[in-house]
């Protein structure tokens, strides 16, 4: 039957099929529904459409794995965090942090109280630098006061120095772990630095110890970002555990395959006939099994036996006899073959053999009679007698 299409049409059809092979998604184009239906009418299937890869997915596997590691190490890598109100961290400078704590005299106590009152007034007037200096004078007198450190931390917040505030409030919490003011102002400082989880923790503690509306308002402000980060970190940890579990299962699978392979090779080495130089595969020895067969195979590795089997004539004859013991009769006039059989019989002590070759072939080969190794090199006598009538 002649083709109904000319060569030009066939070339176009081939070009179209090449395009489909390179990009199967094209078959899902609405204009090619007729071709899709044609393929399916003959039992064919169209591969499902593949989503186009993003720019990151087109990179090499190694680079993708590297990006994955970066992603897992950075809990905010794919989060949308509202950073409005965050500021750049400040550089810490040396300031009075108090000396040795000792019992204060009445005069020192009164002086420290007076300095604290003055510092509060300066703070309320917006004179934050002066307020900090005054708090420092009071701390020098009374370094045991957690409130002085917390209030100086509050003044640092007004100067947009969150790190200085965190240092003071941490010192305050060392002196008094239940200082609500220290938790409150340190939480606010963490918020200014964009440390959302730390901010939420401190402000939650402040509200727990001594609730006030400002602490609660600040806590509500930082909670959404803190929850996003916490959930994202849990997701990263879950992915890590899943990956570790997959790797563990893969290691177990490989170990199981290795054990199965080793067991199979061991079984095969125990059941296969060992190689005997250039001798063809011998097949099975009739009637020889169990330990007797294994001993016989070991005997084939004897240096003297192996030396004899290097002779192709002997190897071929041995293979022939192994395949069918009755074939022994063909080689009774071959001194090399009979010498090998005699050698095997002498080296292998097998019961019930009567000196015949070898073991599981009980005593003699079918149709061959018993073989006596002492006759291995002597050909049988001829029945012909010369009557001198020539």
TrEMBL record:
One HIP oligomer binds the ATPase domains of at least two HSC70 molecules dependent on activation of the HSC70 ATPase by HSP40. Stabilizes the ADP state of HSC70 that has a high affinity for substrate protein. Through its own chaperone activity, it may contribute to the interaction of HSC70 with various target proteins. It comes from Henosepilachna vigintioctopunctata. Residues 71-80 have a biased composition (Acidic residues). The keyword Coiled coil does not apply. InterPro entries: Hip_N, STI1/HOP_DP, STI1_HS-bd, TPR-like_helical_dom_sf, TPR_rpt. GO terms for cellular component: catalytic complex; nucleus. Transmembrane segments: none annotated. TPR repeats lie at residues 112-145, 146-179. Residues 278-287 have a biased composition (Gly residues). Keywords: Repeat, TPR repeat. PROSITE patterns: TPR (PS50005). The keyword Repeat applies. It comes from the Eukaryota. This is STI1 domain-containing protein. GO terms for molecular function: Hsp70 protein binding; protein dimerization activity. Homotetramer. Interacts with Hsc70 as well as DNAJ homologs and Hsp90. Residues 46-80, 252-287, 364-390 are annotated as: Disordered. Belongs to the FAM10 family. The lineage of its organism: Eukaryota, Metazoa, Ecdysozoa, Arthropoda, Hexapoda. Residues 302-341 form the STI1 domain. Residues 52-70, 252-267 have a biased composition (Basic and acidic residues).
